[in-house]
Amino acid sequence: MMEAQQSVPEESAHPVPAPPRRERVFLQKSSVCSRSYFMVVMVFFHVYIINVIALLLYVHYNNGQGELGGPRSRSERLMYLPRIEGIRVGHVQKVSLVPDRLHEMRTLSLKPLLFEIPGFLSEEECRLVVQLAQLKGLTESQVMVPEGQEELAEQLDLSPEEIFNLLDLNQDGQLQLQEILTQSRVRDGIWLTPENLREIYTGLKADPDGDGLLSLAEFKQLSSNAFQRFLQQRGVQSSQLVRNSRHTWLYQGEGAHHVLRELQKRVTRLTRLPPQLVELSEPLQVVRYEQGGHYHAHHDSGPVYPETACTHTRLAANSSTPFETSCRYITVLFYLNSVEGGGETTFPVADNRTYEEMSLIQNDVDLLDTRKNCDKGNLRVTPTKGTAVLWYNYLSDGKGWVGELDEYSLHGGCVVTRGTKWIANNWINVDPDYERQVRYQQLVSQAHSTASERSKPNADPHGDAHQDL
Amino acid sequence: MMEAQQSVPEESAHPVPAPPRRERVFLQKSSVCSRSYFMVVMVFFHVYIINVIALLLYVHYNNGQGELGGPRSRSERLMYLPRIEGIRVGHVQKVSLVPDRLHEMRTLSLKPLLFEIPGFLSEEECRLVVQLAQLKGLTESQVMVPEGQEELAEQLDLSPEEIFNLLDLNQDGQLQLQEILTQSRVRDGIWLTPENLREIYTGLKADPDGDGLLSLAEFKQLSSNAFQRFLQQRGVQSSQLVRNSRHTWLYQGEGAHHVLRELQKRVTRLTRLPPQLVELSEPLQVVRYEQGGHYHAHHDSGPVYPETACTHTRLAANSSTPFETSCRYITVLFYLNSVEGGGETTFPVADNRTYEEMSLIQNDVDLLDTRKNCDKGNLRVTPTKGTAVLWYNYLSDGKGWVGELDEYSLHGGCVVTRGTKWIANNWINVDPDYERQVRYQQLVSQAHSTASERSKPNADPHGDAHQDL
Fold first, then answer.
1. Which of A1, A3, A25 to mutate to test the interface with B (most CBs of B within 10 A)?
2. Helix B35-68 × helix A35-68 angle, to 10°
3. Which pairs with CB-CB distance under 8 Å and at least 24 residues apart come from B436-439?
4. Whole-Å CA distances, B59 to A59, A278, B66, B82, B278
5. A120, A210, B359, B440: which could join A388 in a potential S-S bond, CB 3.0 to 4.6 Å?
6. How does B108-126 read in b/e, with b if 16+ C-beta sit within 10 Å?
7. Which of B39 and A277 is assigned the larger pLDDT?
8. Pick from A17, A352, A395: which is nearest to B8 by CB?
9. Residues 361 through 400 of chain B touching chain A, CB cutoff 8 Å
10. H or E stretch covering A286
11. Within a 10 A sphere around the Cβ of A375, how many other Cβ atoms?
């Protein structure tokens, strides 16, 4: 500034142009406004911008590939479901669920992929969840036989011959007890055993020769709902039901008790699933089994066929479908107390080489019966306060999404021989139809944003849905 | 330059400085050499360079996370080993191995993780591999009992009491046949059966009471190499050896036959492993079993302890180690012909719920014996020309690298009852010690670059290593 102002008077005083003076001229401040300077800077600036854009595109492209990896089909999807590696039975891996502590996660079986995490909940947290459940109040998990229900066979309009043929698995022209039980295990919540089936036969005079086999002629004599009517007349005890427990549902979304919120976050960390998936799943189910309580072996979710809809995504389903299942990808079960006697969780066919439905019931050993044969199953988990077990009810589809139902995930609650058993279940619902799950999540987030001014319970899609589960 | 020369006389003619004229001054060409201009450009340039570096670092960091995902420890590693998903037995997935065709890959078992890929090789390729092997010449896979070998017991300096105690698994003070066989199954390549063990007892008068049990007193009467000496005197037939076949090794590196090169590329695509890993593995082993040929059940690789070294990375091992194994992460087995009778590959304990070494040999059923009990194993693969089977000999370590030996990978070649059996093996060698594998690969790539002017066979680390395998 100073130099520039000095240079001009100097030049006018000495008319002969001298090289040293000329250099001085270009140090004037206004030189930054020159056209050539502007041109050079603009070129640099544009090259710079183009480079930044190219690098950002490169970063974006690389991230897309890196995150999803593997088969090409995945790169089109924005969400995928990592599965925890089981490695081998007995393998222990460290997991970070809470600050300042690592939990140990032990592989209990590979079929189903099943893990145990001791100390998942603190004593205090267990106590609180039980109290919250008691405060809300528990209802019978299963009511006694409902009356006046129509038989499925009547709805489907099948002839007795057709039904007989469907039931006769080995096609020997006779119905063994086992064939009746495999397919008609549960009659409106009543759990049939070979003994009470024999009792029904006698009561109905259905099997005159008493060989425990029904011929087509004998079968035709029975009216389609003869079994039900007989059982209803005789009366049913709770120990004869599929499950004998009381339960309630605890909402874990916004505004819920901080321990329930924290529990949900911990489950997200444990399962490594996208948080939104966990948040949009069913509320926490808290279950109490009194002494003598049980839950016969079952699957937490059903098989999936192209026409099957999921309960949680029916919002996003295009049409009404004849079949619906709960689509519980993962079960996380928490033991809220250590049971004095019995009450183990049994996985009767865990890591079996093969799964055959028929071989579950053989002669007098019915592996599904958790009142009698818990000791004969492959795997039993003893309830320990604060321990969580996690298993996958579905296999992977090999492309990062949910595949078929894992039949080996069959499990039940053994009869409680002493004391009370408190557990809680967190089910992670995922629709095996990827597009439907995505559509559902979009619908919910839209509903959330429009309903955010209204009362909160309405925004939760499971608010009412599971009152009756 | 021209403008600059004109402007100075103008200024000298009119002493009063006028703004319009001053603007013209800065359009002079030499303005790009001004100090302020230089300063501004340099600042821009530095900012630009810093931005590019920051973005490159960001890309690098993101790649590291994206590719490896999961546990934090992985992000430090540049290489990881994806495993093919098995999903469930019978699952079929499409794989792209050659242009214009998709192959089907069927899951045969999960323990070990085992797949079958029909049509992996064309008829023509099978024929060519057999011809190349014949051209090179095959050698006996196992020679008869070598003489004059020292007993391991003598080297280890153990007393007879100590050896007896080690062998006595159930600690009942007596050695059952089963206990001898479980631990001394193979004596210098001779496969001991319960029958020939009884024969040895009789020949050596080792078991006077003839109950098939050795007491400590009886055991002490035997010299440490009594078994060997007896067997050598009696003479050994090839059917009594662990394996009864002939084999050769075919180099697949640079300069090898294009079919062998192509085969290696296809294996890389199939296994989804880094190409360098596959390229640095053992050459292709081609094996011929004549009628009566067999290979008793075995593991292709050994268990890994901290002190165990891998044969393929001994270049990179820091010190000499007492144990060495071949570290064959994956076996890819090709059937080069369809065998007329027998010759199946058996996996006796595939998908068993548990693995117990002792229960493999029970009474008269020895599941390891592929001459007798192939029909009693869990899984048998029938040789079909062109079909490949792939299995993992090691589990994952849960962090994207090789873990423990998968004991369920136990397999053998059933006796060929009619015709000849031709197979080929591609083993993918990976050191369970990640650092050692990386060091080894660096060493090899250095050796390659320095030895590239020399003859090619020297640059191949497996050139000589496997002549004697």
1. A25
2. 10
3. B436/B310, B436/B313, B436/B316, B436/B317, B437/B79, B437/B313, B437/B316, B438/B78, B438/B79, B439/B313, B439/B316
4. 6, 30, 10, 22, 28
5. A120
6. bbbbbbbbbbebbbeeebb
7. A277
8. A17
9. 378, 395-398
10. strand A284-289
11. 9
Select, from the ranges A325-329, A451-455, B193-197, B460-464, the one with the highest average predicted confidence (pLDDT): A325-329
Q: What is the pLDDT of residues B238-279, one digit of tens each?
A: 788 889 999 999 999 999 999 999 999 999 999 999 999 999
For the segment A183-230, what is each residue's pLDDT rounded down to a tens digit? 666 666 678 787 778 888 888 888 887 778 888 888 888 776 777 777
* Interchain contact, A34 vs B26, CB within 8 Å: yes
| Contact state of A31 with B31 under an 8 Å Cβ cutoff | yes
Closest alpha carbon to B204 in B193, B191, B215, B218: B218
- CB of B351 within 8 Å of a chain A CB? The answer is yes
pTM comes to: 0.76
Torsion on CA atoms A378, A384, A386, A391, rounded to nearest 10: 10
Summarize pLDDT for A445-457 with one digit per residue, the tens: 888 788 665 554 4
Q: Which residues contact A286 (CB under 8 A, 6 or more apart)?
A: A129, A130, A132, A133, A138, A247, A248, A249, A250, A336, A422, A423, A424
Q: SS3 of B318, please? A: coil
- Of A36-40, A309-313, B215-219, B326-330, which gets the smallest average pLDDT? A36-40
Please tell me the predicted confidence (pLDDT) of residue B37: 73
In chain B, % of residues over pLDDT 70: 78
Instruction: Report whether B198 contacts B206 (CB < 8 A).
Output: no
* Torsion sign over Cα A86, A92, A98, A99: negative
DSSP string for B356-405: -TGGGEETTEETT-TTT-GGGSSEEE---TT-EEEEESEEE-SSSSEEEE
Structure tokens given for B5: 């020369």
Cβ proximity of B260 and B426 under 8 Å = no
Read off the pLDDT of each residue in A363-373 and give the average, rounded to a whole number. Answer: 87
Q: Residue A169: how many CA atoms within 13 Å on its side-chain side?
A: 13
| SS3 call for A425 | strand
- 8 Å CB contact of A26 and B15: no
A35 contact B CB<8A: yes
For residue B95, the cross-strand partners are: B103
Using an 8 Å CB-CB cutoff, list chain B residues near A44.
Answer: 41, 44-45, 48
Residue B435 DSSP code: H
Residue B411 half-sphere exposure toward CB, CA atoms < 13 A: 28
Residues counted in chain B: 469
Residue B458 CA to its chain's centroid (Å): 22
CB A167 within 8 A of CB A185: no
Residue A237 CB partners (closer than 8 Å, separation 6+): none
Is residue B311 pLDDT above 70, yes or no?
yes
